[in-house]
């Protein structure tokens, strides 16, 4: 297989094609959802690997696991051709080319593995997830010297208007190329008309609202107005790296039921100082409660060697039928959640803020999702509670004020935690139930 063959199967357009001609040491492809940014970056890596024997290339994302769900899939299914003879070596976490080039993969949640060696090109997928420190640490590792260029490249959907990537682009430290839906031949024909896939995909994006619409449909770097947890949510503070949770820490399960909307189950542990740590999440549409229960049992491994302690309480949304299903399948009683919104939001907000010791009293594990809902991801809906706070906003229509009512959207995970937090902070202890065995 030659470069000409690759070019025959792939051609970059618009903003994406600038990646292939730019000599900038740092560059980012930005744009709304599905414009072909990641495909372009991966084709670019493959081009160098094929043409320069011994090239050392690296693809990173904030977590290694998310790379397995995204970049590696596109790379294997769309970019690599069997005739190239490229193989993935699990132990080394790298693709090896017959000519000695490698493309390694890694998560910046475990930087020591990848940052102890040097590279020619590093590609950061969904670069907005990174801290600026992560990005800069990568740039210092670009000194292998196996290619005529050294480059730090990346892609992202737009994020908030104060994001470091936008700032870096404005300061001319990083070149930013804008991409559009029209640049992706899967969505638009060359004459500017939409393909059937384009119609399908863009109609999904048209269902988004607020900042999600602005960012994923229009490609704008905008911040949400009136975020419910604006003064309390801080991903740097509230999202933490996972650690083994001691068996003595009491466990809880919190539920928000849904089928068309996501069903959410959160596993929480309480540390000896009363902090709540949400360490695992199911966030999934179109699956029956009884099937969720099987998954809950499977991952909790209650009663097995090395399994988790049984939860002390199951706090659930009120739907009687869904509660009964959970009780029957898990063999434990549920407690109906205290659902009032306004005091619940205040209780959540106060736990999310830093307490006197500098730590919040509600935290989330970074890799908490059991399985990503592909359909939600494809439609750029949140796929986890961790993606909600930025688009969960106050309803400011018709003269309503901040603090009156939130817009009932992008709130499924946050609602689940509101129920959980209310159980600890708003429900008098005399009316609490425990997860008695059914
Ligand atoms: N030039 C092209 N030729 C053929 N297919 C393409 C081209 N560009 C993109 N695609 C296809 O379009 C789909 C979306 O592309 P890709 O995942 O690169 O988009 P993206 O901009 O990274 O999306 P997101 O914003 O969601 O990360 C993929 O299936 C990809 O293979
Ligand atoms: Mg992408």
Instruction: Decide which structural class fits the backbone.
Output: alpha/beta
Radius of gyration: 23 Å
Instruction: Summarize the amount of helix as a percent range.
Output: 25-40%
- Uncertain ranges: none
Structural key phrases:
438 residues, alpha/beta, eight-stranded mixed β-sheet, seven-stranded mixed β-sheet, 16 helices, 33% helix, 16% strand, binds adenosine-5'-triphosphate, binds magnesium ion
Report what the structure shows.
With 438 residues, the protein is of the alpha/beta class. 33% of the residues lie in helices and 16% in strands. The chain has 16 helices and 15 strands. Strands 3-4-5-2-6-7-1-8 form an eight-stranded mixed β-sheet, with helices on both faces. Helix 2 packs parallel to helix 3 and helix 14 crosses helix 16. The longest helix has 15 residues. The radius of gyration is 23 Å and the shape is globular. The model has no long low-confidence stretch (mean pLDDT 94). The site of magnesium ion has 3 residues, from helix 3.
């Amino acid at each position: 297989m030659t470069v000409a063959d690759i070019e025959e199967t792939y051609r970059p357009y618009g903003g994406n094609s600038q990646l292939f001609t730019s000599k900038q040491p740092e560059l980012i492809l930005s744009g709304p959802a599905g414009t072909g940014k990641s495909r372009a970056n991966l084709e670019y890596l493959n081009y160098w690997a094929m043409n320069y024997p011994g090239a050392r290339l690296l693809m990173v994302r904030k977590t290694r696991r998310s790379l397995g769900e995204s970049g590696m899939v596109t790379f294997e299914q769309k970019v690599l051709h069997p005739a190239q003879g490229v193989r993935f070596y699990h132990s080394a976490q790298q693709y090896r080319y017959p000519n000695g080039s490698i493309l390694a993969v890694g998560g910046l949640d475990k930087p020591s593995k990848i940052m102890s060696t040097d590279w020619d090109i590093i590609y950061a997928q969904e670069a907005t997830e990174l801290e600026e420190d992560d990005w800069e640490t990568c740039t210092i590792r670009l000194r292998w010297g196996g290619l005529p260029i050294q480059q730090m490249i990346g892609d992202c959907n737009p994020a908030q208007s104060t994001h470091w990537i936008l700032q870096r682009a404005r300061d001319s430290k990083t070149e930013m190329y804008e991409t559009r839906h029209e640049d992706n031949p899967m969505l638009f024909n060359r004459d500017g008309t939409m393909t059937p896939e384009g119609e399908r995909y863009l109609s999904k994006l048209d269902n988004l609202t607020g900042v999600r619409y602005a960012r994923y449909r229009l490609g704008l770097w905008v911040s949400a107005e009136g975020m419910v947890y604006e003064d309390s949510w801080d991903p740097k503070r509230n999202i933490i790296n996972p650690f083994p949770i001691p068996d003595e820490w009491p466990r809880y399960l919190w539920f928000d039921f849904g089928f068309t909307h996501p069903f959410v189950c959160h596993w929480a542990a309480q540390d000896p100082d009363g902090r709540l740590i949400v360490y695992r999440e199911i966030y999934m549409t179109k699956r029956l409660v009884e099937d969720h229960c099987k998954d809950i049992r499977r991952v909790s491994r209650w009663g097995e060697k090395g399994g988790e302690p049984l939860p002390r309480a199951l706090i659930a949304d009120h739907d009687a039928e869904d509660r009964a299903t959970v009780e029957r399948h898990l063999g434990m009683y549920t407690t109906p959640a205290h659902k009032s919104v306004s005091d619940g939001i205040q209780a959540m907000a106060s736990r999310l803020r830093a307490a006197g010791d500098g730590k919040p009293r509600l935290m989330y594990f970074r890799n908490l999702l059991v399985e990503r809902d592909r359909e939600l991801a494809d439609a750029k809906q949140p796929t986890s509670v961790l993606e909600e706070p930025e688009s969960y906003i106050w309803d400011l229509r018709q003269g309503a004020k901040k603090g009156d009512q939130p817009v009932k959207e992008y709130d499924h995970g946050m609602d689940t935690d509101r129920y959980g937090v209310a159980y600890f902070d708003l429900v008098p202890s005399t009316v609490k139930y425990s997860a008695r065995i059914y």
